[in-house]
Amino acid sequence: MSKSKLHATKHGNVTLGNSKIFFLEMTRLLRSRSFKNPWAIDFAEGKEKGTFVATAIQPIEIINNHLGYKISFDLKEFYDAPTNYRIIGAARFEEMKPESETQKTTWDQNRAEVYRKSPMNMFRAMITNKQEQEGFFLYGDKAGGSASMNMRSDIFANELGKSVVPYKPAQLVTPADKPGEYLINLKGRIEIHYQKGYAQVNTYADAPYPVSWLEVNKGIVRVRENGMVLNPQDLVFSGDMDQKRISTLLPLDYDAEKAIQLQNLVRTAANFQEKIYLHTDKPYYYAGDPLFFKAYFNYGNPYLRDELSKVLHVELITENRDFVLQKKFPIRDGIVVGNITLPDSLNQEKYFIRAYTNWNKNYGPKHYFTASLGILSPFQR
């Protein structure tokens, strides 16, 4: 058996002869992950043609900047074949300290995104029969249909009912012999469509979302109530879920329900935001001039436009935020067209035009529209 030291390219590929092993999946995550000690891994050709195995002389250190974790992975077994792979080991997670509130929010969102489309979330949803609500639609091979993907068309609508049918066993889930554990009945090859996601490469032309396949030894998946699989050695994924490797792992104590609820709350609040953009007809004015403007609204959710504000407040204020004038204008279809007359008493102080709605007050002054307004001396005419 010949051995070759690991060679890692800048793209994260592991090269052995003319073959490439994607130890860390080739997705957008590669750009934000740092493989700290690639020299610790030895790859060797397997006993079967086209297969490779790997060993590590020390835990593999990974900095996952996409999810905000330092991962120490103790590799026990690595096996890669043309049709499947197997990685066995223990991962220890250390949560990284975010450099800003923005980075913390990004990490929270990325973790929730990874969890939403994960097998763990799918199995958790199956326990309460909410897998379709979470976006997971299951199909099985139809008896007598074409089991080979090479014999199928690339139009799922044509294959549904012909080669694949919805997977709806009489009893999908049964309680196991231990409290808090369940047995999920998945016989044969299960085709999984995650309809809440988007695929870079479509399996079917009319299904622009990730598609995976799952085969389970003896047809039983044993899980805990949070969806954690207790017999992972019996599961073989292919397709999109086949790409979920070390770098997309989440800690076993990851509180997915809390994270998703917080994310949904943020999204819900964002739906009700309305941002104002106001344009004036000139870059500067003289005291006593009319000022014409047009204001546009950008809604967090355009469908809620008619449910939000109906009145726009427009103000002229000084640098010290003293009011010079205030006026209200009706909002129609997310647009306001109006004018104000500047007082004759204006001097060359610094003035600002400010626009907001009563709803904006819920988010604070930073959500108001404010712009400086140039006022010239009448002697500059």
TrEMBL record:
<protein>
    <submittedName>
        <fullName>Uncharacterized protein</fullName>
    </submittedName>
</protein>
